[in-house]
Structures are given as structure tokens and as C-alpha cells.
Amino acid sequence: MWDMPYKARDVSVILMILRVLNKRMKLSEDEHWYYLNQEKGFRGEIQFDILTEKLKRDCYILNDLQLESSTSSFQLDSTLIFQETCSLFDVKNYEGEYIYDAEYFKTIGGRDIQNPLDQLKRSKLLLNNLLQSLGSKLTIEAYVIFINPQFTLYQTPPDLPIILPTQLDAFIRKLDQKPSRLNQSHKNLADKLISLHQTVPPKIQVPNYSYEAMKKGLTCCKCDSFSVTIVGKKLICGECGCEELVTVSVMRNVEEFKLLFPEQKITTNVIHEWCGVVDSRKRISRVLRKNLKITGLGQWAFYE
Ligand SMILES: [Zn+2]
């Protein structure tokens, strides 16, 4: 039996912005590295989701929660509510050989990484405060999960809440043996945590960018290529041959624009320039009119 997550995982706002920036501007080496790491982290979380969804025991699976407790915000990759425990998991998709150290995991010749247990302790404490304020008596368990089979951590003390790739199967089996009689109070807690989730984290770390530096134009929905042409009602990609309705691709690119420039008003002129390849302003105007709500008149009209 596959257990669907009670709260599904979405691509984070940060990763969505980074994907568009990577497509439309030249990221510096560090920024590009940061972007690839975000992608990699997300892939690792998805891999862990596959494991938790296979659990046969009843539990509420809450993927990706951004919460606040006593004015401190914290993010939880994966939270599982069982009968007696609330288990939180910080998923790391690191690869390579590291040596355990209380402060940093050391590597030979690469970038050292901060010991994720500090972050875990903080999350655990903040979640504990939050659960207490919500009147929950569940015990909190917290683990760092190293999901990548290519990851090794030498000299890891055995009593730490660290799950290495070689221990993962056994760990999941153990989770599957937890008592699992859930009642309304568990559901209430799951619903409450979801209601407290903030879709946009308070601090978004993304590279600086400007409208001018962005490459304008419609892009292929499959391969991100700018080599697209309009034939009739369709946008056809010169790279991969993918076809998409022009209406759909204009709206997809409007979403990208809104993501990068949430303060900017959506007007026909702005989107006409942003989409580049569409010759006719009228066509853009038609698409916007059909999909968004118009406010104002004539040259002052904008869309919401
Ligand atoms: Zn393509």
C-alpha cells in the first residue's frame, strides 16, 4: 500500500526563482554552484519521499514545512506524525567522502560542510516549543538523513541521530514498526501545522538580478530553449521539437515574470517585451484578457 503524503512537497520559491535566473541570465560560478546545490537538495528530498510513502503504518506525512515559533522561523524537510511521536527529518543529498567533526565535516580537497546536527537541534527545539503551545504531547524525534548512496562519513560516533545511506533500509523498517493508532488529535495537529506553513520563507537567498539583465523571450516547456518559433496557434521548439499552445506558453512565461518581479504590474507592453517572439501586441493582449482579470482602461490597463 502506498501512503500519499498528507502535505505534498512543492518546488520551493527559491528554487523556482533560481531556475528562471539560470535560464535567463549568466550566474556567477558561486551562484551557479548554489543553484545546482538547491536542485540536488530537492532531488534528495524527493528520494526520501519515495521511502516514506512506502511506509505501511498509518502516519501523517508532511513534506516541507516552513514554520515559526517564538518569532524564529525554521524549515522542516519531512515530518511524520505517528501515534506517540512526531519525527522530523533533515534530508541531505551530499556525496563524497567526509570525516566527522563536531563543527565541520571535513573533506579532502573539496568544500567542508557544516555539521547539520546544529541545525537539527535548533529545529527540534523550535518544533518542541510549537507543539507544546499547541497542546500536543507527542515526543519529538529528529534525524539527519544522508540519502545519497555515494556519501560516506568516516568516524561518525554511533549514538548520534545521523542515518547514513547504508543504514537507511533498516531505519525505514524500524519506522514501520512504530505504534500507529491515529485519532482525531493527530489529524488536528497535522491540519494545524499545514495551516501554519508559510509558502514564502521570510528570508529568500537568491542572487541579485534586474529586469535589464534578463534574456527576454518565450522558452520551451521541456528543454528551456529560447529557439522557439510560432506556427499558427503553436509554439514549436527548434531544439527538442516540443509543441505547446502559444496561450499556454505565454501564461507560463507570465508566471515566471511575476515570480521574479512580484511588484511589477502586468501590462500588455511589459509582457509583449518579456515574451519577445510573439510579434503581435494584440495577441498578447488577447491571452492576458482571457486568463487574467483586467483593471483600468486603455493604456493604463493592467492585469491581475
Ligand atoms: Zn525544447
The domain count comes to 2
CATH architecture of the largest domain: 3-Layer(aba) Sandwich
Q: Provide the structure class.
A: alpha+beta
How would the global form be characterised? globular
Q: Which small-molecule species are bound to the chains here? A: zinc ion
Order of helices and strands: HHEEEEEEHEEEHHEEEHHHEE
Quote the average pLDDT. 92
> Biggest sheet, in brief?
5 strands, mixed
Counting DSSP H or I runs of 4 or more residues, the number of helices is 8
Radius of gyration over C-alpha positions, nearest whole angstrom: 23 Å
* CATH-defined fold name of the largest domain: Trna Endonuclease, Chain: A, domain 1
Taking the alpha carbons of the first and last residues, their distance comes to: 43 Å
Strand content: 15-25%
Percent range for helical residues?
25-40%
Give the CATH level 1 class of the largest domain.
Alpha Beta
The order of strands across the largest sheet is 1-2-3-7-9
Name the poorly predicted regions.
none
**Would you count the extended β strands for me?**
14
